TrEMBL record:
Family, similarity comment: Belongs to the proteasome subunit S3 family.
One Pfam short name: PCI
Acidic residues bias: start-end ranges: 545-560
Membrane-crossing residue ranges in chain numbering: none
One Gene Ontology molecular-function label: enzyme regulator activity
A GO biological process held by the record: ubiquitin-dependent protein catabolic process
InterPro entries noted in UniProt: CSN3, PCI_dom, PSMD3_C, TPR_PSMD3_N, WH_DNA-bd_sf
Recorded GO CC terms: proteasome regulatory particle, lid subcomplex
The protein's name in its UniProt record: PCI domain-containing protein
Compositional bias segments (type: Basic and acidic residues): 154-167, 530-544
Amino acid sequence: MPGKAPPKSDKDAKGVSKGKKGGKDADEEMTVVVPPSKKQAQAADGDGDVHMGGEEDKVEEVDPAVQAVTDIKSNFALLDRAVALFDPRFSLRALRSISLIRKRLTPDIIAQAIADSFPATAASAKSAKILLAAIDRADTQLGKSSGSEMEVDGDAKPSTKNGSKKEAKDLIPEVDIFLGILIQVYLFDSKQYAKGARFSEQLTDRIQSLNRRTLDSLSAKVYFYFQLFCEHMEPLPPSPESPIVAVRPILLAALRTAVLRKDIDTQASVIVLLLRNYLLTSHINQADLLVSHTQFPENAVNNQVARFLYYLGRIRAIQLRYTEAHEHLTAATRKAPGSNCALGFSQTATKVLLVVELLMGDIPDRSTFRQATMEEALHPYFLLVQAVRVGDIENFETTIADHADTFHRDGTYSLILRLRQNVIKTGIRMMSLSYSRISLRDICIRLHLGSEESAEYIVAKAIRDGVIEATLDREKGFMKSKEVGDVYATREPGEAFHDRIRACLALHDESVKAMRFPMNQHRLELKNAQEAREREREMAKEIQEGDLDEDDLGGDFEGM
């Protein structure tokens, strides 16, 4: 047929492919080889063909217990770096990893980590026995991982004249305390509170005897769990015979020692624990004295600052100092971490803040209750705000009765009981804004009061306190409201704007102070710069004297 190319032989085809390699025709005739998929390879194996994947497709299964021990031991390198560089950030990284390990902690895993880490020396054996006895694994042998090395050293000849052998290096105390914290976590999760309290007391004694600044962040965590164990032991607070009363002298002694040693982490943690301790037993005066006689460290961790502000806000709210309580609680909610790990703290602080705002006569913003993480937890408080906003006494008392258990559990029940007068004042203020003149009988009906005399007394008190701007006519039995001027003509908007600016500036200053850098890094850079300048001066001097020319420098030095 015309136009059809004659067939080519194999030699011609090979010649064309060799001769036109890289050309246009060769690109058009190129054959792409597609590797077989995983399913095709498996099907080929079924037919008897060679499997192309080899052993790479196999996934090695790791024992969870071995992986847990490996994760625990991986933190020891961070603690070593924290000691070598004197940088607490590495210790904090090791503490943050506990949340990932705690669900896999068992006595066998902890005992295996201790046996693999502690060498079989007399100094380490004493510390290891205390740790192993706390988890009922006192018969575990130490130095398993270094056993082969010790045997080799024992068979070898002495390297010194005195015949001394190479001894295994003892662990640093930071690793010892870190393993103790893991034991505390396990005992708390397994609800062995009495045993955990006894072990925590031994751990605190060891920390006090060591006196190492690299242990500051670890000791703060030890005292935290010590207090937590005592809170869950019988009898529970607020009983005066609760174990938290007996732990106060230990915490006060630790606070004195931390102040003398300038231990910021332990000092901040112990102050927060003491405030929590006093609030659990309703010793408000002692908590106030502690705040007035101690100074919370400025460089404390942000989490401790948020806790301190929360407890301080609760103390001020109980003392009827609502303005200061509102400032502290607002700062606590702002400093709370945004992650889900601190969701409970954010909810608790927000609940107290809402009650304080109601006691101040303000109505919280509705957007607070619409947050996905807050909606369910704040539902009883939303009903409470609705009753206060409208000024409905009957609805207010019904809400308290229905959710009394929730308010008791949140520790806000006593504060909410103070809101009754605020509900009445709010109702009167709403009516003064809605009506230019209203009779005392209508006020009595709307507020569900017992008599008109009670309504007259409440209205007179609201006028005297400045809640409303009105006059009371006792003869005719009505309340007449005064005309309200433009609020923007007053200084109130400017003061509110000034408060917001001050809060933003304070947050910026605290953020700058909280920034951390490697210690003495500026000195190292300064030293390197001085050495570089001295080398340049020496080289320039040698060039001027003729002892050194540019060829000796390799051409990289440019004359000064």
